[in-house]
Amino acid sequence: MNPTRYSEQEIAWLQSVDRDTVWHAFSQMSNYAGLIIDRGEGNWLIDIHGKRYLDAASSLWCNVHGHCHPAINRAIADQLEKVAHVTNLGMSHPETIRLAERLIRLAPESLKHVFFCSDGASAVEVAMKIAFQFWKQSGAAPQERNKFLVLGNAYHGDTIGTVAVGGVEQFHRLFQPLLFPVLRGPCPYGSRMHSERSEAVAQKHLDAYRSLLEEHAREIAAVLLEPLLQCAAGMVYHPPGFLKGMAELCREFDTLLIVDEIAVGMGRCGRMFACEYESVQPDVLCIGKGLTGGYLPMSATLTSRRIFEAFLGDASQTLYHGHTYGGNPLAAAAANATLELTQSMLDSGTISDRTNQMKTELEGLQSMSMVRRVDQLGMLGVVELGGPSNDPLRRLSKRVCEELLLEGVWLRPLGNAIPIVPPLSISHAELKLLFDSLRRVIQRVAMEGDNSGRLAH
Predict the structure, then answer these.
(1) Do 17 and 33 have their domain in common?
(2) How far apart are CA 57 and CA 235, in angstroms?
(3) Three-state SS for 420?
(4) Which of 149, 223, 256, 270 could join 283 in a cystine, given CB atoms 3.0 to 4.6 angstroms apart?
C-alpha cells in the first residue's frame, strides 16, 4: 500500500463533503459511502488512503488506455499551449478538423460528416433530431415521420429525449408522463460465446421487427439500436446476424438506421466499430466514452452525405442544435492521441490477444455453481450470478464487488450481472489477477451462502 498524501483531518473533511454535498450519479445518497480516488497510474486507481485498485471497469467503460497515459497527456499539454477552447459555432480549430477527418476515415463508408457533442446522451439526442428534421425537409416522405422504433430494454442516456427511447424500467418509469411515445420491439437476447441456435433466435426477433415495420414504416423516422450488445440492459448480447438483418429491414422499408456505439465503439468490441462485425453501413452512428480515452467530455454523431445534404439551403433548413464545448480542441487532441493508440493496438493484434485470454478466463468461471452465465464481445465481458429463486440477486453481485474491493479490484454490478470491461491496455498479468480475484471471491461468497443456507443447491 502506498502512503497516503492526506492527513486524517483532510480525509475526514473530504469524506464528509463528498457524502453531504456532492450528489452522485445512480447512487442512493442516504447511505452513500464511495471511494475517493486521488490519482491513477496505468490501469490502477489509488484512493486518498493510498490503497491501489485495478480499474477493471475502465472507470465506467471509458478509460480505454488507462490513466495518465504519456501520449494522451502530452497531446493535451501541447494543445494547452495553443488554445484551450474554440467555439464550434462559426469557427473551428486544426485539431478538431483533423479528428473529424480521422473519424470519417475509420468509420463505415456510408458516413461522411461529423457533428461534435459533449457526451453520449447528447450524441443520441442530436441523432434523433437530425432524423426527424431530415424527413421534414428531404422531400422523400410526404407523410409525418415522428416516431422511433427501438429495442426492448434499450438504454441511450438520461436526457428526456434519450429516456423516451430507453426501456430500462428501473431508470425510466418515474418519468413516463414527460416522454414522447415510441415503438418498441423485443429485446434480442442471444449470445456471442454460445451461438448454436443464433440463426433461429435472430430470425425470431427479426420477424417481430418486420411486423412492426410493415404496420408503422410510414410513421418511423429511424430505427435506433445499440449494435451487438446492450450494456445497461444487463449485458445483453445479440445473436449474430440480428444487426445485419435490422439494417436490411431499414433499407427495405426506407427508414433510417441510427446505431448507438457509445459503449461498444472505439475498439472496445475488438474492432474499431461494432458495425464492422456484420458489414453494416448505418445512416447515423453515435460515439462517445472511449473517444477521448476517458480524459475529457466529447462525443460525436456521424451521418451520411444524403442526410447532410438535406440540411443545405436557406436558414430554415439549418440544424439549430449545438453544445458550448462541442469540438473542443483539448478534447480533440485527447481523442486523436487515443485513436492513434487504439488503432495501433488493433493493427498489432494486442487487443485480439487480450480478448482471447479473457475468453479463456470467462469460460473457466462457467462451471462455478453461483455463475449462471458468462459472455463476451471483444473486451466487453459479463459474469451473471444467481442462487435459489428466493435469493436477492442484486445483493449477491453487489456483495461480490464489495469483496473484490478488499482484494484491490474495482468492478461495478449491474443488477445480477457484473460487467467485466477492463482497459484495452490491461496486461496479461493484470488480466490474470482480475480473474483469479473474481474466482476467489465468488467461491468465498458462495461458501458464505452455503453456510447460511441461502445458496445451498
Answers:
(1) yes
(2) 13
(3) strand
(4) 256
Cα separation, 181 vs 183, in Å, equals: 7
> Could you tell me the CA-to-CA distances from 196 to 193, 216, 287 in Å, in that order?
9, 32, 31
Flag whether 1 is in a domain: no
**Cα(287)–Cα(244) distance, integer angstroms:** 19
Residue 457 lies in a domain: no
**Which residues are CB-contacts of 58 (< 8 A; sequence separation ≥ 6)?**
64, 290, 294, 421, 422, 423
Count of domains in the chain? Answer: 2
With residue 318 as reference, give the H or E element that holds it.
none
**Does one domain contain both 180 and 326?**
yes
Q: What is the pLDDT of residues 241-256, one digit of tens each?
A: 999 999 999 999 999 9
Q: Are strands 44-47 and 52-55 parallel, antiparallel or unpaired?
A: antiparallel
DSSP 8-state secondary structure symbol assigned to residue 223: E
Q: Which helix (H) or strand (E) holds 301?
A: strand 299-304
| Amino acid identity at 143 | Q
Which residues, including other chains, have CB under 8 Å from residue 66's CB and lie 6 or more apart?
Answer: 40, 42, 43, 44, 55, 423, 425, 426
Q: Position of cell 491496455?
A: 425
What cell does 154 get? 434499450
Given a cut of 60, is residue 60 above it in pLDDT?
yes
245 and 286 share one domain: yes
Is residue 49 within 8 Å of 56, Cβ to Cβ? no
The answer to whether the predicted template modeling score (pTM) of the entire model surpasses 0.85 is yes
What is each CA distance from 257 to 28, 213, 229, 249, 254, in whole angstroms? 36, 13, 16, 9, 10
Question: Which residue range(s) make up the domain with 97?
Answer: 71-346
Sheet holding 52-55, edge to edge: 37-41, 44-47, 52-55, 409-410
DSSP structure string for 8-75 = HHHHHHHHHHHHHT---TT--GGG-----EEEEEBTEEEETTS-EEEETTHHHHT-TT-BS-HHHHHH
Average pLDDT over residues 164-191: 94
Res. 456 pLDDT band, cuts 50 70 90: very low
Closest CA relative to residue 133, chosen from 222, 197, 61: 222
